[in-house]
Amino acid sequence: MNKDFRLAFDILDRVFREGAYSNVLLTEVLDKADNRALLTRLVYGTLDKNITIEYYISLLCDSKPNNKIYTILKLGIYMLKFMDSIPPHAVVNEMVNLAEYAKKPKLSGFVNATLKNAVSKQFYLPKDEKMAISVQYSVPFWYVKCLFKQYKKDNTINILSQKSIDLEHIRINNKKISDTDLENKFNQLNIQFVKSEYGGYLIKNCEDIRKLFDKGYITYQSASSMIVCKACDVKDGYACLDMCASPGGKSVYLSSLAKNLKITACDVYPNRVEKINEYSTRMGVDNINAIVMDGTTLNQDFKERFDLVLCDSPCSGFGIARKKPDIYLNKSYEDILKLSEIQYKLLNNAIEYAKVGGSIVYSTCTILREENYNIVGRILKERKDVKLEKMPIQFDNDGFIQLLPNEKGLDGFFIARLIKCQML
Q1: pLDDT at 365 over 60
Q2: Phi-psi region for residue 304, left (φ > 0), alpha (ψ -120 to 50) or beta?
Q3: Per-residue buried b or exposed e for 342-361, using 16+ beta carbons within 10 Å of the residue's own CB
Q4: 119-173: per-residue pLDDT in tens?
Q5: Counting beta carbons within 10 angstroms of the beta carbon of residue 174, is it exposed (0 to 12), middle (13 to 18) or buried (19 or more)?
Q6: Which residues contact 376 (CB under 8 A, 6 or more apart)?
Q7: Is the overall model pTM greater than 0.70, yes or no?
Q8: What angle do CA 52, 53, 54 make, to 5 degrees?
Q9: What is the pLDDT at residue 252?
Q10: For residue 37, what are the CA distances in angstroms to 4, 40, 83, 202, 207?
């Protein structure tokens, strides 16, 4: 049995059945792989095409197969229909072996027949336009309907057709190294790099980059995440609150944008607060106080204490789905509505924590109005102590902006900046 196929099956089985995170599981076993690139492609590729593959399986089978067999069929069909480097007969044989490995020997014949049928079958998209787009781009049908309503057809297709770029966006840590010295290191290590338009570098990830990361010379941070921090426009001596801070990237970046900042970084779980401390230590930052706090519960001690409150809210993550394809798994529109209530509570509390004249920046890494415009709009209608304030970023804005995924490395982010006003 091919070792990488088995490892891919083990990861996918846990992702589909337990809701485990594919990136975490992959990191844990990548060193065991015979071919790291193949294992990575099998896992992320199958997840990326999951909805398309499920549609294919629905045309091949009268009913949904057993969970483990379902995963084997998904992996097999991904290789048959979206890869051309492995002969079909080898794929079928290896998937039959996986049925034995999964302790489903009685279903090995079913796996064999289904995949052999898939080899020769020509699949066609559904006739319904939105359903066809759902299958073609492998995204949930309800999500396509939302995008049609909010962005219209052409923009929906443009959003969904954006492919993940094969580069990482990193940010320099000027506490430890200068731009010139870092670029010299890149050249010495034969690392190709391109300066991004947003203040970082686009590079191909490799072992040497990871070593620079471990030393704290650089950190992985998306361009959109950096833009959120620039929208905060912190000034020397500010007291700042990062309400949903783990793993700490935005808090740490904020600490470099002005002098003598006092940053309080919060998260609801102790283990996630520890990640903030680890991040700060690696980057040589000593002005961040990381604490456990539930952002949805008002902390009376924090009322009107901060010049800047960053509310980088938990969200559906659909703005970064091209990087994390398992984001689409097991999410429904009802889940989005539940998230929006949490986001509303967080932003309300964020406003309470800002001083009069202070700023509140609300951000998410999603593109759905329910989590973005609607939250801020509801707040502005209900409260008379906040108003939108133009953000000092490289995009035209009236206090808010929706960034969409693009080929230059931007992720889908929403950013809004509010200023706390004196109540009349």
Answers
A1: yes
A2: left
A3: bbbbbbbbbbbbbeeebbbb
A4: 999 999 999 999 999 999 999 999 999 999 999 999 999 999 988 778 899 999 9
A5: exposed
A6: 347, 362, 388, 400, 416, 418
A7: yes
A8: 90
A9: 97
A10: 10, 5, 13, 20, 14
Phi, psi of 382 (to 5 degrees): -90, -25
Q: Are strands 306-312 and 239-242 parallel, antiparallel or unpaired?
A: parallel
Residue 141: both structure tokens together: 């049908």
Q: Is the pLDDT of residue 424 over 60?
A: no
Compute the average pLDDT of residues 61-66: 92
Q: Quick check: 271 and 246 in contact, CB under 8 A?
A: no
Token couple for 126: 């559904």
Look up residue 128 and give its amino acid. Answer: D
Euclidean distance between CA atoms 289 and 251, whole angstroms: 10
Nearest residue to 4 (alpha-carbon basis) of 36, 48, 47, 46: 36
Tell me the C-alpha distance between 66 and 77, whole Å.
16
Nearest residue to 415 via CA among 380, 366, 382: 366
pLDDT band at 371 (very low <50, low <70, confident <90, very high): very high
Is residue 125 packed enough to be buried (19+ CB in 10 Å), middle (13-18) or exposed (0-12)?
Answer: middle
